[in-house]
Amino acid sequence: ELKVEQNPLFLSMQEGKNYTIYCNYSTTSDRLYWYRQDPGKSLESLFVLLSNGAVKQEGRLMASLDTKARLSTLHITAAVHDLSATYFCAVNNYGQNFVFGPGTRLSVLP
Amino acid sequence: GAGVSQSPRYKVAKRGQDVALRCDPISGHVSLFWYQQALGQGPEFLTYFQNEAQLDKSGLPSDRFFAERPEGSVSTLKIQRTQQEDSAVYLCASSFHWLQGWDYGYTFGSGTRLTVV
Prior knowledge:
The structure holds 2 protein chains of 2 kinds.
Chain A: E1 4-7, E2 10-14, E3 19-25, E4 32-37, E5 43-49, E6 55-58, E7 61-66, E8 71-76, E9 85-94, E10 97-100, E11 104-109
Parallel strand pairs in A: 2-11
Antiparallel strand pairs in A: 1-3, 3-8, 4-5, 4-9, 6-7, 7-8, 9-10, 9-11
Chain B: E1 5-7, E2 10-13, E3 19-24, E4 31-37, E5 44-50, E6 53-56, E7 65-68, E8 75-79, E9 88-95, H1 98-104, E10 107-108, E11 112-116
Parallel strand pairs in B: 2-11
Antiparallel strand pairs in B: 1-3, 3-8, 4-5, 4-9, 5-6, 7-8, 9-10, 9-11
């Protein structure tokens, strides 16, 4: 059974600081997604990582995938308040079945 | 429409009541998913449609849950004899084609928050 873990689950950081969110998964998968969710809102697709060593960047966020270690990271550079949200990773289980992690709730403080 | 639309936005049901939750995917989107998101948790897969065909319903937690998409567009998630543990946000997601979602991620609706009292 595929299990997806994230850490930390809660992250409070100051503006301008860097930090990394980790996503571990338990069985082999060929792709991993990162989503953002603002309170009371829908999930917004951030990145799709399709292969080992894949790295994608958008603004202050950079995601990477190591399929051998079954690990993805979401790195935040020089955080700003607008990045405050909950971040989920999701891993393909089989077919169109995806398993989401529990989410990392990020608060960026002034 | 411009996005995935779900209704109602909020639903309060008495225990034992039947409810129906509606999802209007983006026009032309073939793939449609339902997810259940409990408070403070990640979404959990319920079921997947490709057009009108329900290809995977392995995530439906019990036979009280039923989903349909008879004309391949609007989908309804029905929960019979609601229980308190059914309280959650029910999210719908879609993509133009399974491959588009596969490669770019899926478009989610804002969800229906169901509270069973």
